[in-house]
Amino acid sequence: MQVNTSRFGQVEVDDERVITFAKGLLGFPRHQRYVLIQPNDDSFFFWLQSVDTPELAFVVTDPSLFVADYRVSLKPEQLEELSLETVEQAQVFVIVNKRGNVLTGNLQGPLVVHTEQRTGAQLVLSDRRFDTRVPLVELEANTQAASA
Q: Which end of the chain is more exposed for a tag (fewer CB within 10 A), N or C?
């Protein structure tokens, strides 16, 4: 299938790679179909691109790459909603934002994707150890801007 994006133009994506979020994402309940676009082979960050809206995309990453003790505990009803028997059947992502020169992750609102069924949900965790702006990576300062 062809997916139109505002960042990459038209991208060819296998139909089997579409992830359906039955309830959408927080703030975007009507946008339910997304694909992951990896900008390059060695990137830890992906674009979660809406299949139906070219302008709607989120930068996401696997939080365990940056926060070693981050774990998502799913309640039985959440496992059932995602048709999961165990959390190990899922891939967890968090939405990334840039604040100044730091990339932060929303660890309180993870995206849990059933890897076999390609379905997902955005959860709101009650665990207050993590919040919506956990620093993940500090970006290098632009050397041209610094020397100007």
A: C
